[in-house]
């Protein structure tokens, strides 16, 4: 019985001893693993001097610099339409003729009135000449005492009356001439001619259609004549970027219809009034219209084509730069041993405010590689393009700066963290 109890005791001792040993091993492994320093994989690039060109991107439409919208001044039916959309036209060429029968009838009536008025004027002129001679003869006789006062007064009255009738007839002729001129002007407006050399870029009417003149509140837009030798891109620039744009800035234009071509232009006009969409909503957008004159437009460009532009606002050469993704921000925090506490009063409040400001301040930083570890360096940045950003302070050139990954730069890296440098993976796949 005693031997059995001893055997049981030894068995229990082995079991508990084994469990204890296992716990010790697990604790050691956990301790070693917990103290193993984290290693972050990164890619690097050299800090070098480059040329940085700041650009502003915008989208818009291709439009002719000069265009004329044709509107009729008279109302009527279109009886001639010798042009079609896309036709080349010359200055003075007939574009459209409107039926002017009503004006022709009025013209004939007014011409008859004018002839009648002129005939009446001639008759009154003859009467006035005769009456004036009689009046002068009576005045001469009255001077010699051969005519009475009453005869003189009668002759004078007849002369003045005839003269007044002549003046009325003269006014009637002038009025008839004015009316005839007005109707002839209306007749001339039934035929509309091109005010410039250009292309019919838009035709809104057809032969036989009735159009309304300028006297109506809703006049007809017949067609648009455009000078396609002078083309511009009209783009919308964001309110934050428009302050960077200046007259004369160079721009590259890409037209959606010609994806393999680039056009060069110069900024010719910057709008002063904002174009706002989504006013009063979360999607409110404020843009300004900018016109870019194309230097060598192709004949294939057409008004209304969609385009994108990159306006080169400023260029600096031979400046230290790093990949734009290398620059990130880090917040300043309280130093070791600093506490946000005190005995109260104004001094405590001042300390609290200073510490709060220190914590919330964000600094631009990059991470360099030194002895296999990340070294955080505060920098001051300047202009940037699509790929690189200039460094004004903080770097000397030649350093290896961390350029990837984005996750590592923005979140994982800290000063002194151990890193492993990897080669950059090319995005180009071999066929």
Brief digest:
The chain has helices at residues 2-34, 101-143, 149-188, 345-360, 406-412; strands at residues 39-46, 48-70, 76-80, 88-89, 94-98, 191-193, 198-203, 210-211, 223-238, 250-255, 258-277, 285-294, 306-323, 328-331, 362-370, 373-378, 380-384, 388-393, 400-404, 418-421.
Tell me about this structure.
This protein has 4 domains: 41-52 and 320-421, conserved putative lor/sdh protein from methanococcus maripaludis s2 fold; 72-99 and 190-221, Beta Barrel (OB fold (Dihydrolipoamide Acetyltransferase, E2P)); 101-188; 227-315, Efflux pump adaptor protein, beta barrel domain (Elongation Factor Tu (Ef-tu), domain 3). The protein has helices at residues 2-34, 101-143, 149-188, 345-360, 406-412, and strands spanning 39-46, 48-70, 76-80, 88-89, 94-98, 191-193, 198-203, 210-211, 223-238, 250-255, 258-277, 285-294, 306-323, 328-331, 362-370, 373-378, 380-384, 388-393, 400-404, 418-421. The protein contains 5 helices and 20 strands. The chain is 32% helix and 38% strand. With 431 residues, the chain is α+β, with helices and mostly antiparallel strands. Mean pLDDT is 83; it is low at 333-345, 347-360 and 426-431.
